[in-house]
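Backbone-to-sequence.
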């Protein structure tokens, strides 16, 4: 009948609550889904629009940069070798000659002028004459004299220092190191824009020789450090020559501070070389970028096109010349440009979003417009509110209604599930309790009846055996009394009628009384009870019978769960203003996860060992209630396989 009643209740609950809730959920999901689709479409359109707007701002910025760089170069046939430009975002500016891109160090004014001076007929005649003496005749003395004459007769600094470099080499060859050092040090102090016809600074040649001749590398390190901060492009040969020089300096330098400078120079040079290598790759791939090199046919859209190139986010564009002069190629770092745009308050106010740049090959991202082929923008996640308006009130209302109905439904389901689970759990515990009580009652009653019948029939004539039978009957009767008292006391506790009668009592006497009551059952099962008490403890205000009942329950538990061990300890001591009564065993122990549950009514730890041990599940619940009624506390210290110790703490201040 009860099962049918439960099923009817559940069926009615499903019909009355769940079915309307399901219908409401379906309607809400439908409307919310439609609104979400609309919001997603608006968001996608807004992202596309914002990407195009950002592209227009980017286009205006880079076109202004192109115009400024174009205006800064009055002579378009050649370029200065300076690495710094009008705008810090510019990576390099190159010339387009025919269909080929010329890089700054290939057509710079300084290098072209140097090549012209070093190939001056009169100067080159003197140098060739000295080189014949040096290499062909091996006459280093005469070669040095001729180089010295060329140096003194030179009008231009580059000619003079070039001749000095060859003179120093001659001194080095015939091992006149002192003279070589003098000249190499003078060359080392030269500015780095004083190069040979290949764009290699003369001071680099001197630095390499000085590193071999001199043990003091401080001047060389300072020179290299100065070079890393110069504003001139190095030719690839000069960059790799400088890299070898830094590596050799690193091997020969032991000083810690100098090592730090060398490492810093090494990092800066590696960064420069990577940029130069990408520039060389751009030179090779220039025709594949699709930039028009024909000024007559190139339209405004062609001239405004910026192509993404390389891993370092370069944008490349042509700056066509209205005259017959060659066009310029402007290369900017797009990351640097966006970094400067983000610092512009007007720009961030217009576009308050986070974004990243991606290549055209990326599956994600939005186009910045036709002026930036190969470049996409990816907006950061969780910024949907910046691209769309807030949802309208109607979907929010439906969602709130849905949450309310679901909340009521789930709460009702939880209450029903809790009640059913509680009833099932209580039914199981009551069934187990009845079974355990029946077994607990049956065992002593059987013993009492057996020994009583034996005595009535007069089968035992031995007075000693007769007395033993009587002891058994008395102890089993006491066992029945304790069991019934536990049940009755628990019933009173459940009804709130359990009354305690505290009075001044000696805990020592209570412990001795409990030990005497347990002598016979302990001896019958081969247990040894060790009682230890601390002298000098004052009397306490307790209910003697209740405390003794709690101790007897703990001792009975110790007997039941001692396993193979037969040693039980009962101790009384003073600790931190409390009297502590401890019952300990060396039995099976209690799982840590179960220790906080064993004081509940009817609860017994579910384990194979406990299934073979009879119990009601009331003993520890009664102990816990008695201790709490005396304003004390009950602590447990247990380890699986090693035993358990239950400690009752009673305050001595009430004594």
């Amino acid at each position: 009948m009860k099962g049918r009643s439960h099923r009817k209740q559940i069926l009615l609950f499903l019909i009355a609550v769940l079915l309307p809730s399901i219908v409401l959920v379906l309607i809400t999901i439908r409307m919310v889904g439609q609104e979400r689709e609309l919001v997603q479409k608006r968001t996608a359109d807004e992202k596309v629009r914002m990407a195009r707007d950002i592209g227009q701002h980017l286009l205006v910025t880079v076109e202004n940069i192109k115009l400024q760089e174009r205006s800064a170069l009055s002579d378009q046939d050649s370029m200065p070798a300076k690495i710094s430009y009008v705008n810090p975002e510019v990576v390099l500016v190159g010339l387009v000659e025919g269909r080929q891109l010329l890089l700054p160090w290939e057509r710079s004014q300084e290098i072209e002028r140097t090549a012209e001076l070093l190939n001056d007929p009169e100067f080159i005649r003197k140098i060739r004459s000295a080189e014949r003496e040096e290499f062909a005749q091996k006459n280093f003395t005469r070669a040095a004299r001729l180089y010295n004459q060329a140096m003194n007769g030179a009008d231009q600094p580059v000619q003079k220092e070039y001749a000095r470099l060859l003179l120093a080499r001659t001194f080095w060859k015939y091992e006149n190191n002192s003279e070589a050092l003098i000249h190499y040090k003078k060359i080392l102090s030269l500015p780095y824009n004083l190069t040979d016809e290949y764009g290699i600074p003369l001071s680099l040649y001197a630095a390499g020789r000085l590193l071999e001749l001199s043990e003091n590398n401080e001047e060389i390190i300072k020179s290299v450090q100065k070079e890393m901060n110069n504003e001139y492009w190095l030719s690839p040969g000069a960059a790799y020559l400088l890299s070898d020089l830094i590596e050799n300096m690193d091997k020969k330098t032991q000083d810690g501070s100098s090592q730090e400078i060398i490492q810093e120079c090494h990092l800066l040079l590696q960064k420069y070389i990577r940029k130069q290598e990408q520039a060389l790759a751009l030179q090779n791939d220039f025709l594949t970028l699709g930039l028009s090199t024909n000024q007559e046919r190139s339209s405004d859209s062609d001239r405004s096109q910026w192509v993404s190139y390389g891993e370092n986010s370069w944008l490349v564009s042509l700056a066509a010349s209205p005259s017959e002069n060659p066009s310029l190629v402007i290369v900017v770092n797009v990351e640097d440009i966006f970094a400067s745009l983000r610092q512009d308050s007007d720009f961030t106010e217009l576009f308050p979003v986070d974004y990243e740049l991606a290549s055209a090959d990326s599956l994600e991202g939005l186009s910045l417009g036709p002026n930036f082929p190969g470049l996409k923008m990816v907006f950061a996640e969780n910024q949907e509110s910046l691209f769309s308006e807030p949802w309208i009130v109607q979907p929010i209302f439906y969602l709130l209604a849905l949450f309310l109905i679901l909340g009521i439904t789930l709460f009702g389901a939880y209450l029903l599930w809790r009640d059913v689970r509680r009833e099932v759990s209580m039914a199981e515990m009551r069934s187990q309790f009845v079974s355990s009580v029946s077994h607990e009652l049956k065992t002593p009653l059987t013993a009492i009846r057996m020994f009583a019948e034996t005595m009535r029939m007069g089968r035992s004539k031995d007075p000693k055996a007769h007395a033993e039978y009587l002891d058994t009957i008395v102890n089993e009767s006491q066992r029945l009394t304790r069991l019934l008292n536990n049940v009755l006391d628990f019933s009173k506790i459940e009804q709130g009628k359990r009354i305690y009668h505290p009075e001044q009592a000696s805990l020592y006497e209570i412990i001795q009384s409990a030990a005497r009551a347990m002598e016979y059952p302990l001896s019958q099962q081969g247990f040894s009870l060790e009682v230890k008490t601390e002298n000098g403890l004052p009397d306490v205000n307790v209910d003697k019978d209740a405390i003794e009942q709690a101790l007897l329950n703990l001792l009975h538990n110790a007997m039941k769960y001692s396993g193979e061990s037969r040693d039980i300890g009962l101790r009384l001591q003073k600790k931190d203003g409390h009297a502590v009564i401890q019952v300990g065993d060396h039995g099976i122990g209690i799982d840590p996860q179960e220790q906080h549950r064993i004081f509940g009514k009817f609860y017994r730890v579910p384990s194979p060992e406990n299934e073979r041990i009879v119990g009601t599940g009331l003993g520890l619940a009664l102990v816990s209630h008695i201790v709490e009624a005396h304003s004390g506390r009950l602590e447990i210290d247990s380890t699986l396989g090693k035993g358990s110790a239950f400690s009752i703490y009673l305050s001595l201040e009430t004594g």
